[in-house]
Amino acid sequence: MKRINMNFSSEDIKELREKSGAGMMDCKKALDESNGNVEKAIEWLRKKGINTAQKKSSRSASDGLITIIIKDNTGVIMEVNAETDFVARNENFQKFCSDLSLTCIANKVDNVDNLLQTKYYNTDQTVQESLTSLISKLGENIIIRRLKLLDNNECTLQKYLHNAINENSGKIGVLLSYSTKKESEEVNIFSKNLCMHIAASHPKSISIDKLDKNLVDKERSIYYEQLKSSNKPEEIIEKIIDGKVKKFYEEVCLLEQFFVMDNKIQIKNYIESFNKNNDLDFKIIDFEIFILGQE
C-alpha cells in the first residue's frame, strides 16, 4: 500500500483549493503526488483535468439525454445533463450515458449517490472519476441527474424513446414493466404502443387507487373554491366536483386515459380487448417516464 506523504499542511490544502477550485480529496492527492509543492500540485491537477472540471461544475446543465437500456430483464432509465445539445450529440457523451446505464445494471445500482462511487463500466475508475475526466474533455458541465432501476424477474420490460438520437437515448424516455403468460410479436408491438401513449400523455399513476390522495384532495379543493360562489345547492356542487374529479382521473391515471391512437377507447378497455382477442392476461406492472429537464 502506498504511504501517504505528509509534507504539506491544512493551509497548503486550503491554498490549493482556492487556486484550483478542486475538491479536498483531489487536493490532498495532488499535494501527495507533488511532495507538498502547491505549484506542482496545480500542474498535476491541470494534467488530470480536475481543476477545470471543478470550475465548470457550477455552470448550468439543462440539456442532455434520457437513456434507457434493458439487459437480462433488468432495465434502467437515466437522465444525464449537459449544457448544450451540441455535447448531447457528441459520441463520447452518448457512450458515457450508455456505459453508465450498463454500470447500474451490472451492479444493481438504484440511486445517483451510490452510482458515483461505483466502478465505471469496464474500468478501474469510479464513475465520479470518469465523470470528472469527461467534463474536462468536453468542456461542459455534466450532471447525472436521476435514475430508476427496474429489476423484477417475473416481469417483462419494454422501452420507448422520443426524439431518439441512437437506440438507447433521446429526449423523452418510457420504461414499462408488464406481465403476460405468453410473449409474442403482437405483445411486443402492443407494449411498445403503450409506451408511446405514456410518452404522449404523461400519466401520474397506473390507476386511480395508486394516485397520490393529496393530489386528488388538492384538485377537489380547487374545484370547490371555483364553485362555492355559484349559489348552487351544496349537493349539486358535490356532484359537479365528482364529475370534474372523474375527468381529472381520465387525464392523469394511465388506465383511465383515452388511447392517443384511438381516442374513443380507454387504456383499460384497450388492454381488455387485446387480452380477449389474443387469449392473454397482459397486465401493466409499473412504468417510469423521464422528460429531459422536467422538475
Topology of this structure?
Blueprint: H1 10-20, H2 24-33, H3 38-48, H4 50-56, E1 63-71, E2 74-82, H5 85-88, H6 91-107, H7 112-116, H8 127-138, E3 143-151, E4 156-162, E5 169-170, E6 172-179, H9 185-201, H10 213-227, H11 234-252, H12 267-278, E7 283-291
Antiparallel strand pairs: 1-2, 1-5, 2-3, 4-6, 6-7
List keywords for this structure.
295 residues, alpha+beta, Helicase, Ruva Protein, domain 3, Tetrahydropterin Synthase, Chain A, four-stranded antiparallel β-sheet, three-stranded antiparallel β-sheet, 12 helices, 18% strand
What is the CATH class designation of the domain at 63-202?
Alpha Beta
Strand count: 7
Q: What strand line-up does the widest sheet have?
A: 3-2-1-5
- Which descriptor suits the 3D outline? elongated
What is the helix fraction of residues, given as a range?
40-55%
Distance between the termini: 45 Å
Helix-strand pattern = HHHHEEHHHHEEEEHHHHE
What is the count of helical runs? 12
Q: Low-confidence stretches at least 5 residues in length (pLDDT < 50)?
A: 1-5
Chain oligomer state = single chain
Mean pLDDT: 90
CATH superfamily of the domain at 63-202: Elongation factor Ts, dimerisation domain
Query: What portion of residues belong to β-strands?
Result: 15-25%
Label the CATH architecture of the domain at 63-202.
2-Layer Sandwich
Please describe the biggest sheet, giving its number of strands, its sense, and whether it closes into a barrel. Answer: 4 strands, antiparallel
Return Rg in Å.
25 Å
The helix-and-strand class reads: alpha+beta
